[in-house]
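Subject: mismatched residue count in predicted assembly?

I count 774 residues in my input, but I want to confirm that the predicted structure covers every chain. Input:
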Amino acid sequence: MPDPERPDDLLRKADDLTPKERLSLPKQPMPERAPQERRRSQEEVPLGFDEVHAMLEACRCLECKAKPCVAGCPVGVDIPGFIRLVRKGDFAGAIAKIRECNCLPAVTGRVCPQETQCQLHCTIAKARKDPEEAVSIGRLERFVADWEREHHARRVEPPAPPTGKRVAIVGSGPAGLSAAGDLVRLGHEVTVFEAFHKMGGVLVYGIPEFRLPKEIVQEEVDGLAAQGVRFEPNVVIGQTVTVDELLEEEGYDAVFLGTGAGLPMFLEIPGEHLIGVYSANEYLTRANLMQAYAFPKVDTPVVKADRVTVVGGGNVAMDAARTALRLGAGEVTLIYRRSRAEMPARAEEIHHAEEEGVRFLLLTNPMEILGDERGRVRGVRCLRMELGEPDASGRRRPVPVPGSEFDVPAELVIEAIGNGPNPLATSTTPGLETDRKGRIVVDPASGKTSKRGVFAGGDVVRGGSTVILAMKDGRAAARAIHEALSGERQPQEEVKA
Amino acid sequence: MSARILSKRQLAPEITLLEVEAPRIQKRWRAGQFIIIRPLEHSERIPLTIVDSSAERQSITMVIQAVGKTTREAVALEPGDSLCDLVGPLGEPAEICAGERVLCMAGGVGVAELLPVARAYKEAGNTVVALCGARSDSYRILDEELRGCCDELHWATDDGTYGFHGNVVQLLLSLAGPGSFAEGHVIGPIPMMKAAAEATRGWGLKLHASLNPVMIDGTGMCGGCRVTVGGQVRFACVDGPCFDAHEVDFDEMTRRNRAYRDLEQVALQHDCRIGLR
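Triage response: the counts match. Full output below for your records.
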């Protein structure tokens, strides 16, 4: 058995390790900034593997024939295949392998919930009876994506012969970017329209810098631009131009709607109009997209407070709470009406928030936001809850405990209780079917909507979901759009032949 | 999308008109809609009412009152420069009736924002009576343009240097009463819109107020611009910006618009310090 303390020795023998030996190798730790150092900094929290640690971690992969991890990946990345290349030190080969299925690896390597997807099915985790012991697939993906960026090793693919077909992508979030990437590769002329001034959608306005550095998103956008994707910011589809106009007047052959879930929900309790009450969307947009953390060097302000409460238990709530710390809050309290087990946030995000000092007030429901005579927030009146029978979501329903009211002092309240699809594009597109929640109705395999030539995917179809599922939808729609456009082209080809 | 400044005109002290290249927006906008601009890379996104457009020049016109850091930097730009970002048209167009005697009321920079609404009323066959307010004679703007589309134009100045001596609501009360108008539109500072709504309650007048709350995206994404209208929460950016003036909770809006007052001073002072260096 090679000595794991001597990496060179181990890596030399990496090809010959037996499954038993691989199983016994320790998981490589991911270095992170210390909680006290990072809680006031926008710098990214996990620091990433170096080459040796990545190769050592890759040695743990059993390269199972059945590839259960691949079945757990929404976009079907050949996980054992890329990990094998990492183990051999062929990082360029590894990233190329990932890019066959995933056009945003530096993003998904950071924000994918691997613990409920690929890593959940890892044989090592099962053998050790500990999900924490799975091969760190996400961290390896992040490593090779970062390696590619740092070594300027991005391969620009030779362009496919132009098809002469034009596709409009509405929204530059993960769904739109992945659709654009696939379509341009197939030779279509692709334009991405974005309502904001910057490309990336939720990746730039929602997810904070310390979790996903914005330069990474920009590099992915630049990479697509180098492939020939045209980006048009400051265009609100439904307001600046409609979907019908894109199809009928601007000469697009197909439209993909990836407009996301940009409609914030509010608690609808008294006091929500006080100064210091934000939707998480507004708070994070000010902090991330408009960089209010740099105020007054930039012009966009954000209300700062010593005591901040965040309402909600998802990833967005964790992002808002940790952003509040970085904007100088002394005390951040997260209020969630169910218990920790029901929190929808990733375990890693909950863990990071707690390490940084976010206080969790669980089984607690806000009843009213309290204000002072100047109309500013001074606290939140809450009610304790207990768990009852499971509800439609399968989670136990929180039930109020009578007479348990208490006040949480705060000067800032951020509501992170979910988002619905933004209706601007859908409501201005006749013939586009939506459900009662405003989500676009599609054929899940192809993203086809009820309207000819119009496809959709990501959160505008799913409601609040994940980056990787949005990317999966973008890819599926790209394939369906390509088929539809190629089908129309066939007769001409036959004539030429 | 290029947003090159084609022309610039000082209308009054601190009030500047910019004509900007905007091919998509000029084609589509209607009276009452607005744009959001980000003049420079570090700027805030600020909403501005669209005032006019030219198909020939592929341009739109906006009027900016230089009160904060971002607006001051915007009006310092010159023809040939470009706005960093320009997006629109946003919001719903103003509701325009036909064949009525209508009231158009505005104060300060709101007078510029009233112009397209007054024109739309006129084109729809209404008799348009405009009441405009300014601090002083030298602050009156777009007089000629308004005369071109209004059947009557009355001015009020705070110091009495032109027209009626007083504010525009006092002018209204001196000229009209219940039954004078069927519909109307008011745009200007919040206290003026609130006073206009109070003064005309019970007149049988359907009065639309064009609101200007704090905004970021202008697409309904953040809820920062939420206002209470008739007890309902509405987003001014997508549901408005025009709402029934008699139903708007102006007191709440006044408080919310003060949210960043202290921070705006910080931004201005920061700017001044840089300027001195």
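Residues 261-276 of chain B form the longest helix (16 residues). Marking this ticket as 'not a bug'.
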